[in-house]
Structure formats: structure tokens, C-alpha cells
Amino acid sequence: MSFPIVTMTCDRCGLQQPGVGGSGHEYVLPGGQKLPVWLQEGWCHDCSCIQPVESLDEKHWMDLIMQVRDELASVRSASRLLPRRLEYEQCFLGYRQYAGLMTDTAYGWSERLTEALLGLAHLAQRVSAPRCLRCGGTNVDASTADDEGVRLLHPGCGGTFQAEITGDILIRGPRSVRRYTAEGQFIGWFGVSRGDT
Fold it and tell me: Which of 13, 48, 50, 54 has a CA that sits 20 to 30 A from residue 195's CA?
């Protein structure tokens, strides 16, 4: 798996800081369910540098709901072709394998929709402000994104950090995740096998 290497550079003083990676963080909710932590760059005043900060914007979850809705709509629009498609694909896959494929697809949609609804419920119950995912502090300034890219004010300088992709890194081997409570407090590092998410 490959991830981009992002460098944040201040347009006034030239200070460069590494950007934020996008995976390996998840919430463990009181019922034991796990949700991904959406990240963004932020200036942590306690760390005095750019750190990964929680993004508590409902847009992430709403986008996921809209994606599932669009996938269901595409199936609905193609429904007039379904009898021929079933006939065609059953010839190559066999009925049982095709039925399993359709069940997996519907199950995937259901899982993503459930995750998005759980994410929205989590945000509605959340009390804490967004946290720095390194020190746990809430004294952070989050970045903003627009058509020109990610921007973050540089405290004390008056400049603006801008993100630039400066390369990519290939990650192999077992994955580990940082787990957090529903309020964003660090629990610990956990190894993840292929079946455990």
C-alpha cells in the first residue's frame, strides 16, 4: 500500500513540517463498535507544531451516505437490464457464486451505511473539542481545505502553511492502529490482523 508524503510549508517564513498520514486511527465506542478517525492537519499549541487533529465534521459521514445512495441508484437504473445480466453472469459464475457476489455487495452497502449512521450518532453525542492525536490536547487550530489545497495559519508568524505532495512511501507488513475513546482520549496501540478491524 502506498501513501503520499505531504510537506507543509509556510509561505512567509519558509518553515517546513511533515503533513498528516491518513490511516491507522480508530475510535472504540462504548458498545465496542469501531469507527475510523477522520484526520486533518492542525497546529497544536501544546506541541508547538503541526500534528494530526481529529476532524469532527459530519461531511465525512454524509459523503459516505451519499456514496451508498448513488451506488443503489445505479443498480436501480440498471434494473431493466438485470434479467439479461443475471443470465449472462450465471453462465460464467454459476448461480451460487453469483448469488454470493450479490449478497456480498449488498452486505458491503449495509455495512458502510451502518458505519455512517453510527458516525453521525457519535458526533451528536461528542462533548470534547477536537484533539491533537499526539498529545491529546484540545488547544488546536485546524486546517481548512479549498480548491487551492489545504491551508493552515502559522501562529506567531502570520504566514500560511500550504500542503505539497513531495513523494510517496510504500508500507508493507502487519498494520497497527492507534485506538481512542469516543471522546478522543488515547487508549493504546493495537496490532491488526487481516480479519480484525
Answer: 54
SS3 174: coil
User: What is the rounded CA–CA span in Å between residue 134 and residue 124?
Assistant: 24
Lookup result for grid cell 465496542: 32
pLDDT digits (tens, 9 = 90+) for 85-124: 555 555 555 555 545 545 556 667 778 888 999 999 999 9
- Tally of domains within the chain: 1
Helix, coil or strand: residue 29: coil
Instruction: Give the closest residue to 158 by CA, choosing from 7, 53, 10.
Output: 10
CB atoms within 10 A of CB 54: 25
SS3 content of the chain, % helix, strand, coil (to 5): 35, 35, 35
Domain span holding position 103? 57-125
Residue at 75 is within a domain: yes
Would you say residue 113 lies in a domain? yes
